[in-house]
């Protein structure tokens, strides 16, 4: 197998010399050659040149079936005419890409989102999923008057201090399974947050409830990915119990559906589970490839951010009688960007017609992969719901949380991913798979054929 690994890497290097050269040059411009750490991998990332439909093309001219889809954001694939036309129409109709004032698309998009997410009685726009979770947590603090939050081990909610804890902790440092430690995941994070961000064990209702009961007077909200990392689902009983215990204790429940919104279904994970959170955050898919986020939820919580006549922190005329501190501050020049909302509306309109197709193709690929791995005698699970899943090489029958997932065979999976890159199948090594409306029978068959070649070399 070691020889196979070396051969796969050698072939990767042979196929991507321009990516190697570009990556070296990029290090003179950006730290590590990238402007987002998630885009980096060894020995260097593949540098893409163009995309079309379900395909990506790198600067060496190699073609790939794209399953990264910008980490799930491009649910209509690359260059979909519905999005292109929507953008052009918006610019022609409005004569500008940005007003800096309220405009009709804010209400139109809001009503569309609320149609699919009945838990959202009001909405606010942000510029990313990260900004959305940041705002949701601030709303929870403002509404409750409490200043700690609880998150789950293995869950990611953005790259800011308050939640950049226990996202992917080493099991040596993670503490007991029933009472996980709060582990800092980045340089520069103030240890203050270890005391103010409580870490919970995902899919363990008894242990979670015990921690929440002990700390209920301090915790404003529980935030979670209802499907961890977009592919490890919560148990139905866990979700039901979590909603009950948070309501009992007066703790807000925030669903971070940045990954799962419009991917596991048009109504997100909350529709799958039949659970109504107090707040929901969305991103990725709803931008059609552009940066956007949304916070929605109960009216009384959202109204903490409603401005009053003398609550503008920037209004000097009210400096002597300002009540800014009595209103949750939320602003942003690009919030509700008209071009992005036009692209998002176009995306949702297409998904309303084609979501079933995406799920059908996803299930066909998952079934084919399971059969291939079985044929080659490798224990594997395709874990996930809707249009998103991961290939987890493991002997465990159930993967229910971060600690279960850490027992998977990542070494074999990474080797397989490089073999697949050489066969024209793209996702960042070790990443999950996302499908789009333009992944059809041909893409599925090409992928299964590539897997057959890769697994033959691997075994």
From TrEMBL:
Its cofactor is pyridoxal 5'-phosphate. CDD domains: OAT_like. It comes from the Bacteria. InterPro entries: Aminotrans_3 (IPR005814), Aminotrans_3_PPA_site (IPR049704), PyrdxlP-dep_Trfase (IPR015424), PyrdxlP-dep_Trfase_major (IPR015421), PyrdxlP-dep_Trfase_small (IPR015422). Coiled coil: none annotated. One of its GO terms (molecular function) is transaminase activity. The keyword Oxidoreductase does not apply. Gene3D superfamilies: Aspartate Aminotransferase, domain 1, Type I PLP-dependent aspartate aminotransferase-like (Major domain). Keywords: Aminotransferase, Pyridoxal phosphate, Transferase. Transmembrane segments: none annotated. Belongs to the class-III pyridoxal-phosphate-dependent aminotransferase family. This is Aspartate aminotransferase family protein. It comes from Halobacillus naozhouensis.
């Amino acid at each position: 197998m070691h020889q196979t690994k070396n051969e796969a890497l050698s072939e990767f290097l042979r196929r991507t010399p321009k990516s190697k050269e570009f990556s070296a040059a990029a290090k003179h411009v950006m730290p590590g050659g990238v402007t987002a750490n998630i885009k980096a991998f060894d020995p260097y990332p593949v540098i893409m040149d163009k995309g079309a439909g379900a395909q990506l093309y790198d600067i060496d001219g190699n073609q790939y079936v794209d399953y990264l889809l910008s980490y799930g954001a491009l649910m209509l694939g690359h260059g979909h005419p519905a999005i292109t036309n929507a953008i052009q129409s918006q610019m022609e109709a409005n004569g500008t890409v940005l007003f800096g004032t309220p405009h009709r698309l804010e209400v139109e998009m809001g009503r569309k989102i609320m149609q699919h997410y009945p838990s959202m009685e009001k909405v606010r726009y942000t510029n990313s999923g990260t900004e959305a979770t940041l705002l949701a947590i601030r709303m929870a603090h403002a509404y409750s008057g409490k200043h700690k939050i609880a998150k789950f081990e293995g869950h990611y909610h953005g790259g800011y201090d308050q939640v950049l804890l226990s996202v992917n902790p080493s099991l040596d440092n993670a503490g007991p399974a029933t009472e996980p430690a709060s582990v800092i995941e980045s340089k520069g994070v103030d240890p203050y947050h270890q005391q103010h961000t409580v870490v919970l064990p995902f899919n363990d209702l008894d242990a979670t409830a015990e921690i929440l009961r002990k700390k209920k007077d301090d915790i404003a909200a529980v935030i979670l990915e209802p499907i961890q990392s977009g592919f490890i689902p919560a148990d139905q009983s866990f979700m039901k119990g979590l909603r009950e215990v948070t309501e009992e204790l007066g703790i807000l429940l925030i669903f971070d559906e940045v990954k799962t919104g419009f991917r596991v279904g048009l109504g997100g994970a909350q529709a799958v589970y039949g659970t109504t959170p107090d707040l929901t955050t969305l991103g990725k898919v709803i931008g059609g490839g552009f940066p956007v986020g949304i916070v929605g939820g109960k009216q009384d919580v959202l109204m903490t951010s409603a401005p009053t006549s003398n609550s503008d922190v920037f209004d000097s005329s009210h400096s002597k009688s300002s009540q800014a501190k009595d209103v949750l501050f939320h602003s942003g020049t690009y919030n509700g960007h008209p071009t992005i909302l036009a692209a998002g509306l176009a995306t949702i309109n297409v998904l309303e017609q084609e979501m079933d197709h995406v799920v059908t193709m996803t299930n066909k690929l998952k079934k084919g992969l399971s059969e291939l791995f079985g044929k080659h005698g490798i224990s594997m699970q395709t874990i996930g719901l809707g249009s998103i899943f991961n290939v987890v090489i493991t002997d465990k029958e159930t993967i229910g949380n971060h600690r279960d997932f850490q027992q998977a065979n990542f070494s074999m999976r990474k080797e397989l991913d490089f073999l697949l890159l050489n066969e024209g199948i793209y996702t960042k090594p070790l990443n999950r798979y996302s499908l789009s409306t333009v992944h059809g029978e041909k893409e599925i068959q090409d992928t299964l054929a590539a897997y057959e070649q890769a697994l033959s070399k691997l075994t």
